[in-house]
Amino acid sequence: MDLATLIGLVGAAVLVGASVIMGTSPEVFMNPTGLLLVVGGSLFVVLAKFSITQFKFAFKAAARAFKFQLPSIQESIDELVELSKVARREGMIALESREVNSPFLKKGLQMLADGFSADMIKEMMEKERLLTLERNEAGGQVFSALGEVSPAMGMIGTLVGLVQMLSNMGDPSLIGPAMAVALLTTMYGAMIATMFANPIAEKLWVRMNQEAKMQELWIDAVLAIKGDKNPRVLEQMLTIYLPPEHRSAESSEERNAASERT
């Protein structure tokens, strides 16, 4: 689970909730009419911008922002070097039974075991990468749209409340509820955008770029294994994906030997 996303969203909600409780009664901030207008209205407007499939997938993608964690680049490089050694020692068919966490990499290993050509492997994996990128991008767009729409729906609720208040100036008992709708809908819209939609959208964009980069690494590695590259050459080739400050001339074998000595 991605604790940063969970801690950030829950922490912000707790702070806002604490400020509400310490200031006055929480019931003052609960207005079903305002919530219905802002939450329901925002979701329907966003749905109008996208297809039902894209809308449903966006919430599945949001769940991945909490529970899906990519391996580190160094961990993936070490795993790929080991797979390269297995392919050289036991043949490509041995890769079929190897357990890997990524379905994308698993598909590439399956194609190696099935004897696909390098051009076919590259074409199919690139197409899969682009389709995954497109799906993740659609999820980010849905939540970005929700972040834009919800404050606007809050302002619409404010205008509705003001109109109701001004039209009932002769009855003081109706001014309070109308003013509550006018003020609370603005708050609801700002909270949905700032504390929910925009953070998840940004997380999806970040995760999308991370996954695309990792898939490029896996494609390069699978093609190098297909070309029977030496595992040491493969490792040096893949270190380009590491940040410059994390690159080292030390190989995985040397790191393992050093860890065994300690």
UniProtKB/TrEMBL annotation:
Membrane topology, from the record: Multi-pass membrane protein
Transmembrane segments: 34-52, 142-163, 175-197
Claim: Transmembrane is one of the keywords in the record: yes
Coiled coil: none
Recorded superkingdom: Bacteria
Every MotA/TolQ/ExbB proton channel domain range: 98-213
Record flagged with keyword Acetylation: no
UniProt subcellular location: Cell membrane
Protein keywords: Cell membrane, Cell projection, Cilium, Flagellar rotation, Flagellum, Membrane, Transmembrane, Transmembrane helix, Transport
Family: Belongs to the MotA family.
Protein's UniProt name: Flagellar motor protein PomA
Species of origin: Vreelandella lutescens
